[in-house]
């Protein structure tokens, strides 16, 4: 019993570290956030942080996983079932992406990650693996299933995935740039839906 309690406590502390760190990174940036500041907000000694993470960079990379994670987390059978619905599959994907884009905490972290991507090779590799590769894989499998079932025209599923995903990413970048200058993003609120409509019309049979 004591052992399980300790494990549960450590897991809770680790999650609290990530939550606090995410907030601090969003507010002060990577350089402006110190391990000491994280520990103070969590309510533990600075040395205790190192029981869970080796460094500030490791904490940052762990936080980044949530920001870079695919909006869709589907198993193979779920992808097939969802892709059989054609446009609905793309709409659900785009709406999950939209939620991530307009989430304020997520958006602030995304801004910081864009800066850090140019300076941190490990972060770049994580971005390609956790965000780019996973999204393209899910979309490619979905488009291939649609082709097999004569829902869309035949083509290279990966290229089609790039085409679909790149516009979503660009809209997300636009939102970040506008908010950076404290400008309205209202004009972009319906662009995700419009993109799905336009894209579907261009590939459907």
What does it look like?
With 205 residues, the protein is mostly helical. It has two domains: 2-59, Arc Repressor Mutant, subunit A, CATH 1.10.10; 69-203, Tetracycline Repressor, domain 2. Helix content is 76%, strand content 0%. The protein has helices at residues 2-28, 35-42, 46-49, 56-68, 76-83, 87-102, 104-117, 121-148, 157-180, 191-203. Residues 1-10 have low confidence and may be disordered.
Strand and helix layout:
Layout: H1 2-28, H2 35-42, H3 46-49, H4 56-68, H5 76-83, H6 87-102, H7 104-117, H8 121-148, H9 157-180, H10 191-203
Largest sheet properties? none
Amount of beta strand: under 5%
CATH topology of the largest domain, by name, is Tetracycline Repressor, domain 2
Strand segment count:
0
CATH architecture of the largest domain: Orthogonal Bundle
Q: Averaged pLDDT, please?
A: 87
What does the radius of gyration come to? Answer: 20 Å
User: How far from one another are the termini?
Assistant: 61 Å
Number of domains: 2
The CATH first-level class of the largest domain comes to: Mainly Alpha
Query: What ranges have pLDDT less than 50 throughout 5 or more consecutive residues?
Result: 1-10
Shape: elongated
Structural class designation: mainly alpha
Order of helices and strands: HHHHHHHHHH
Q: How much helix, percentage-wise, in residues?
A: over 70%
**Count of DSSP-assigned helices:** 10
């Amino acid at each position: 019993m004591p052992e399980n309690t300790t494990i549960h406590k450590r897991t809770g502390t680790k999650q609290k570290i990530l939550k606090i760190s995410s907030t601090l990174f969003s507010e002060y940036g990577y350089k402006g956030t110190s391990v000491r500041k994280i520990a103070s907000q969590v309510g533990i000694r600075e040395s205790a942080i190192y029981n869970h993470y080796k460094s500030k960079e490791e904490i940052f990379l762990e936080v980044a996983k949530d920001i870079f994670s695919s909006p869709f987390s589907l198993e193979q059978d779920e992808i097939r079932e969802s892709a059989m619905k054609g446009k609905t599959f793309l709409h659900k994907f785009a709406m999950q992406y939209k939620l991530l884009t307009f989430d304020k905490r997520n958006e602030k972290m995304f801004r910081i990650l864009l800066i850090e991507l140019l300076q941190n090779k490990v972060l770049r590799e994580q971005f390609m693996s956790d965000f780019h590769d996973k999204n393209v894989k899910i979309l490619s499998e979905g488009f291939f299933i649609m082709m097999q079932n004569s829902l869309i025209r035949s083509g290279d599923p990966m290229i089609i995935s790039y085409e679909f995903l790149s516009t979503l990413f660009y809209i997300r970048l636009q939102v970040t740039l506008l908010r950076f200058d404290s400008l309205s993003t209202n004009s972009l609120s319906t662009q995700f839906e419009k993109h799905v409509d336009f894209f579907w019309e261009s590939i459907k049979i």
